[in-house]
Amino acid sequence: MNIMKLSDRLKKWDVLYFFLTNSKFKIGISILLFFILLSIVGPFFIHYAPYEYAGIQGSPPSLEHPLGTNPFGYDLYSQLIVALDGTWLVGLIGGGVATIIGLLIGFFSGYKGGFLDEVLMMFTNILLVIPTIALLVIIASFLNSRSVVLESLIIGLTGWPWVARAVRAQTLSLKSREFVSLSKISGAGTLKIIAEDIAPNMLSYVFMVFILQFGGSILAIVGLSFIGLGPTNSVSLGGMLQDSVLWNALILGYWWWMIPPGIVITFMVASLYFINMAMDEAFNPRLRST
Amino acid sequence: MRKYLTRKIIIYLITFFIAASLDWAIPRLMPGNPVSLIVSRFAQASSGSAAQASVLTKQMFDYFMQAFQLNIPWWEQYALFWRNLLTGNLGISMYLYPEPVINIILSAVPYDILFLLPSILLSFWVGNRIGAWAARSKKADNILLPTFYILTSVPYFWLGILLVWIFGTLLRLLPMSGAFSYSMTPSFTFAFIFDYLKHWILPFLSLFIVSLGGWAIGMRNMIIYELESNYSRYMGSLGASQRLIRKYSYRNAILPQITGLALQLGTIVAGAITTEIVFSYPGIGYILFEGIMNKDYPLIQGCFLFIIAGVLLANFIIDILYMFIDPRVKIAYTEG
Fold it and tell me: What is the ipTM of this complex?
């Protein structure tokens, strides 16, 4: 028992050591921490409300307006920082809901098998083929007022099929292992086996899935906001980009309006993918490139 | 083979049935009546005395209730919806009144095909090649893999914005929007085709570059697994050249990638919609955007159905192709 624990502990340290020396992980976590810090510290430097006339219209970045202003005289730094909060929220709720639903369906479908599996997987595959954006558009366009939480829930509710398929595949490979059979023989119920034998063995995998869904939800809300179906009455990164395109930032050459939100989105999502890539390499040593 | 195809066709028909039913049901399940939503928007926009407005509102409400046939029982509405759908009647656009939705969409389809097909197929091909090349060559992999991950994180439309800014605003090399110059009329002349290509290249590039990353990552990981598998080791121990082993690995790795292509279509279409908006490119995505901006519900619903039908059709074509590429499918269905 003691030896087991020791080897377990060593294994954990091995993974931790790998993370701390893996440059992808270091880069990913640094970018992520930077954005977290930005959304914590950033608000202290906001001097204007997102939709408040702040000064000269369409001025390039200056000391007073770190990201410049748009043609309406709104301070773009304030808009960006406020939009960041909503982006985190969408990632957390959207990613969380998709992961939880996907886990439940994946576990039961994979573990129970048979008819339940057939039905659930057919349903999953159908939802997978229907483009999420189309569903989101049709739902969002008929909602008169849309809150950030509601939109994240909708994104989560349409994003789970990927998770369900991945979790099902993992469950299938785990359910024929000896320790599961042992639990079955000792009379454990389905829920208990899933919770005690299958779920803990997929923890790292589940976390990776969550990270991917987090990034995917951010990209989904950005796209939705860009086509004019984002949360109503709030600033969002996609909404800033939509404004910039609709109000001819491209022709006017207001790069400070359209470039920063895109950079924030790209590196926020990329940092998550980098962490995911490092975890993938940590748990699948075959994928390590160096 | 016939069994495989019938099975696939049935599944796609069920999927289309569910999607179309959602298209019908979602507006009706939403809080509030779509008609009162439309009428309230008109009432806000129109000016006049309150009494006049209320009479007008009542008349409009009745008119739209009848136009959308919301005053009949729901099962009749549903049956009518299917009858209209199967006869190609998707309703009348409100924004481009009195143009039928189907005509508006059909006029956009050629642009979509010429824009989507090359960018999807080329990015798939090039992405897989680069990914296969990156696998197991340390130097390339260390630079390329992070690059691919950054590429997949870029929102499609933002890369479009970036490209327009660089090539349109700064360098003034390429046009910034539209599918062809206003002075041109579509024809098969050299001048028009050249003009069309000049407008086409930037939207194409933004879709091409972003989706490239995903394919490359997938292929890189697949090739690594294949190179570690027993058949590769066996070939290696028999003295087969590295090139031959890689060729065989590629053939095996391409199969899950093709399945992935079918599954990714929805995401790519979403990217295409937003990209078309950036470039005001007259495809379905741009029409959908105009529908959303102008609260043109019949147009939005029509675009929804068309996008779904297109994605399902593409999936079906991929399924047929898959049958020829992977002989196991054929065997599984002829024996079983």
Answer: 0.85
